Amino acid sequence: MKGVLSHFLLQIPVLILLLILLFMDKSQSSPISGAKYSFSIRNKVHVLPYDISPNTQPLPFIPLLAPSPLIPFTNDSLPKLSGLCSLNFSAVQDIMTKTATNCWTTFAPYLANVVCCPQFDAMLITLIGQSSKYSGLLALSKTQANHCLSDIQKVLVSQGANENLNNICSVHPSNLTEGLCPVASVDEFESIADSSRLLTACREINPVNECCDQVCQNAIDYAARKIALNDMSNSNGNSSLPPKIARIKDCKNIILRWLAGKLNPSTSNSVFRGLSNCNLNKGEQRENKNMDFLANLSEYKS
Ligand SMILES: *[C@@H]1O[C@H](CO)[C@@H](O)[C@H](O)[C@H]1NC(C)=O
Ligand SMILES: *[C@@H]1O[C@H](CO)[C@@H](O)[C@H](O)[C@H]1NC(C)=O
Ligand SMILES: *[C@@H]1O[C@H](CO)[C@@H](O)[C@H](O)[C@H]1NC(C)=O
Ligand SMILES: *[C@@H]1O[C@H](CO)[C@@H](O)[C@H](O)[C@H]1NC(C)=O
Ligand SMILES: *[C@@H]1O[C@H](CO)[C@@H](O)[C@H](O)[C@H]1NC(C)=O
Fold first, then answer.
1. Taking all residues of the chain, what is their mean pLDDT, rounded to a whole number?
2. Distance between Cα 160 and ligand 1 center (Å)
3. Domain residues for 269?
4. How far is Cα 36 from Cα 153, in angstroms, rounded to an integer?
5. pTM of the predicted protein model
């Protein structure tokens, strides 16, 4: 009994923090009613209609908990970057700020699985995707990846993010390369994959429907298999090729980056957040039982 109680008490600060973050997001952009929110925390989305009519009433109690201004750690001096990363940070400035907020220094470890890391992942995809519009490349070389990840970290930290983000979210430089996927350029990708089908399926996703219908996810899976196995027909079943599953997984990243280059940055960010919420609910991503109850909450985001 005591154990249960203390477990519950331990969760309370985390819950409050999440509510603060949710409120920050909502107060910036979205129409979801604050009042409904606070009483429906444990209900699933189908209980609370997703498309609630605009209601700008602030939450009755959250503003009292939320410090104002909300990001006291913001550091206005620009961080020193390597100058060796060719990614276009200015194209995704807003999304980097959002990531820094979602991965706020002290809270990041607690909110990692549901808030911080999905946003960090979405940001990385969007950043590489947006930069592909100029470079034509959907992946970084190993050297570039090292410089870029370090620069990204510096920018985020200068805006208040946790300094240990790469570890918290298990992001390594290799995650910015093409990995085992045989395709890394926009032109090659478009010559193999059915890009209009992908765009149609993923241009805008409704996070609630997408988790059930998986229209965009299926289109991504299909395209990932196609580009992953594209040159395999020439290999006479050479079994020393990388395992199919691993190739397909890495090709999915390439596809997400390509999509990110076709969408505007904020749409791209919310599409990927929506997709990762689906995965969270299926328990596929960064499983963490303690955070399970927050997964339900996070469905209201994105
Ligand atoms: C702001 O960022 C710069 C460079 O990253 C750092 O040297 C400085 O100590 C930071 N200031 C504060 C108050 O965190
Ligand atoms: C970076 O992105 C911005 C905004 O999308 C764009 O105006 C600029 O030309 C890009 N810079 C480079 C070097 O690609
Ligand atoms: C990064 O790559 C490693 C393996 O190289 C993998 O274990 C990890 O899950 C990847 N991280 C992300 C965020 O995809
Ligand atoms: C299989 O692939 C490896 C590396 O790609 C190559 O060295 C080897 O000669 C190939 N074997 C056959 C039988 O094609
Ligand atoms: C989250 O929602 C699911 C589905 O409604 C439910 O089974 C689960 O118990 C909820 N988790 C928590 C901790 O509320």
1. 74
2. 10
3. 89-233+240-293
4. 36
5. 0.68
Q: Which one-letter DSSP state was computed for residue 169?
A: T
Question: How large a percentage of the chain has pLDDT more than 90?
Answer: 46
- State which ligand 3 atom lies nearest to the alpha carbon of 253: 14
pLDDT at 238 over 90: no
Which has the closest alpha carbon to 114: 169, 37, 33? 169
279 belongs to a structural domain: yes
What would the two tokens of residue 231 be?
Answer: 């040159």
Assess if residue 128 is contained within a domain. Answer: yes
pLDDT of 248-294, one tens digit each? 999 999 999 999 999 999 999 988 888 887 876 665 444 443 344 34
Amino acid identity, position 169: C
Query: Which ligand sits closest to the CA of 75?
Result: 1
In a domain, 70, yes or no: no
Coil/strand/helix, residue 161: strand
Q: Decide if 143 is inside a domain.
A: yes
Domain tally, the chain: 1
Whose Cα sits closest to atom 3 in ligand 4?
Answer: 240
- Ligand closest to Cα of 236 equals 4
Closest approach atom of ligand 4 to CA 238: 1
